[in-house]
User: What shape does this take?
Amino acid sequence: MGPVFNLGQPVVDPQVTFTPEELSTSFQKYRKELIIMPMFAMSAALQHMGHRDGIRYKEHIHEMKGNFQFGNYDKYKKGDGAVAIVQRTLETFFGNCIEPIDPNSIVQTLWGSDVTKGEALKNVDWTKRVCAYIMKKLGENMFLEMWTAKHDPTDTTHTSKWFNGFKTLENIEIASGAMSQAVGNLYWLPEAITALNAEDIINDFVWGDAAAGWQGVHTLLRGQPVKLFMSETVKHFYEVAYQTNHGALPYNLQFTKAHLEGKMNIEFVALSNVPENYLSLTPKGNILALWNLRTADETFLCEKSLTSHYDVDFLANMFYGEQYESINKEKLCVARFATAVETTTGKNPKNEGWYVKSGNEYVPTTDTTPGENTTYYVL
Assistant: This one.
């Protein structure tokens, strides 16, 4: 008898099967391990942030603001005793994922992999791995949107429309006037960050830029242990610029920078999900990832499909959100770059959420039709 060739059909190990019941049982068995898989997938960012759990929809926190000073003795002096109590809202958004899974296709995929041939399949709990992979992918997509997500309740499909990312939260504060260069918690970058100017721009952000009327970040902010969030590209540009500017110095033996030169308390946090031409300086405990993870309406399970005898349905419900505990200049300062809009014909600038430049600031436009000789910007 001649050889039998596999004509492109997947080879399935008859001793290894996945059933809906086995996937469901596995998910329940490992539920406590699987529920934190999204956090592991987001760990590159979460290790540099604060965390709050038990936040289901909205919770309010309060911050006191005031300015009190000792002065030379004066029997008759009397201050105004002004203490402002500012309320901030921590908000999580309820989201879910429902995906049909074909156990047979999983087996075929595993058997076709070079690393899972033969006996290997028999000795590993692949049901656990499958469920962990699904949870991990959910977390990876959350990680990618941590700065740029913008909540839109009409879109139930995309992670980018589920919650409000940090940059979106900042845009709300900028539009309200609570974040501005005049207030001291926002610096407008004069140009895009490149390998030629990265060191100068970051130093100007921290220490001041007289030409732009910027006094630098508040002395109390730059004097405490803080994280300087940036894109991986910006960190690379800083290192290239540093090597170009200081490569001839005899004490420079390497140019990988983990901190701002001369300020060991300012730690560089370079992440692939941080937008370009953006910097955020804040203590770890001020930039918050918000979870619930406590109530029964958050469920994670696999159960037999209602539409197919051969499939299972993966279901996950979760609350998640983000917020800054404080946007005061002693706790937060960001650097942003306003990009000019190239095509405005036929657009409604106000509805588009565009900005116009006013002095050293950018403010939301009220134009409903493009103004003549007007440049609009996106943040």
Remarks:
- The CA atoms of residues 268 and 365 lie 34 Å apart.
